[in-house]
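User: Can you recover a sequence for this backbone? Please restate the input before giving your answer.

Assistant: Of course. Working from this structure:
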């Protein structure tokens, strides 16, 4: 998939794309924006002082290769100032298999942003770029799409549909939900090539048993983690947001009981 195929899904109401990437990053042609959507470049520090809202989409290349790549932490002040509904298309300069999910999840949660879609990109499209995220500044959870939701499903704007979290707008609870949803989306991206490789090995006549066991162990470890389980519950609820009110607390209770059980067992072993 190419970034020009992803962006049109999220340009409703967007009047301009504001590119805050390093000046050496020149990707305007790759975006293939429609005539009704403008494009301008702006330094990150200048954009941080501007008033951005739902009519603007931010664009940036993230990674560890400074100064060409922007560090995710540098986006936090800009995301915090943006109004609800502001979206950002973020290109990822890390290889998928080496993606440091924590380097992305922390800044996104701090900026109160939810990943709307995460997609691998064609390697030949943009050199050194593995994938793309579309995130949105939210004040409550919004429906997911992409690999979690059928691509034909319309993207609902912020402010429509039932809320997936309590009406009191507890920022702490919203941050917790954003963390598990964003972690789940990124973990799903990382595990896709593992699943493909696992299927290839399984289908081969001469299977490399050691590699097969290693892949199964890696996949089971990710999918059994608390973050992945909670994110999966929220993702299921996102298809019908009202379900999240039931599924997330239930899964949270299961994870909590499991952790207490493990701690209790560990404590008992130490006493012995």
């Amino acid at each position: 998939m190419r970034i020009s195929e992803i962006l049109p899904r999220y340009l409703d109401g967007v009047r301009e794309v504001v590119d805050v990437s390093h000046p050496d990053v020149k990707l305007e042609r790759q975006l293939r924006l429609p005539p009704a959507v403008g494009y301008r470049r702006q330094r990150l520090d200048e954009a941080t002082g501007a008033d951005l809202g739902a009519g603007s989409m931010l664009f940036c290349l993230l990674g560890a290769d400074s100064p060409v790549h922007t560090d995710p932490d540098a986006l936090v002040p800009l995301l915090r100032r943006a109004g609800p509904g502001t979206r950002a298309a973020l290109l990822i300069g890390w290889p998928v298999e080496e993606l440091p999910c924590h380097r992305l999840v922390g800044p996104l949660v701090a900026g109160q942003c939810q990943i709307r879609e995460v997609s691998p990109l064609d390697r030949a499209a943009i050199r050194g770029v593995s994938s793309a995220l579309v995130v949105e500044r939210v004040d409550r959870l919004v429906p997911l799409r992409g690999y979690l939701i059928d691509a034909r499903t319309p993207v609902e704007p912020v402010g429509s549909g039932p809320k997936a979290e309590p009406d009191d707008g507890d920022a702490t609870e919203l941050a917790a939900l954003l963390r598990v949803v964003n972690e789940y989306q990124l973990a799903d991206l990382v595990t896709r090539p593992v699943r493909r490789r696992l299927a290839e090995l399984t289908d081969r006549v001469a299977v490399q048993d050691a590699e097969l066991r290693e892949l199964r162990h890696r996949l089971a470890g990710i999918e059994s983690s608390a973050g992945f389980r909670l994110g999966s519950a929220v993702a299921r609820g996102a298809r019908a947001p009202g379900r999240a009110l039931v599924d997330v607390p239930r899964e949270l209770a299961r994870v909590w009981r499991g952790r207490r059980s493990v701690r209790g067992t560990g404590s008992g072993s130490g006493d012995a």
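That completes the design. Residues 186-271 form one domain.
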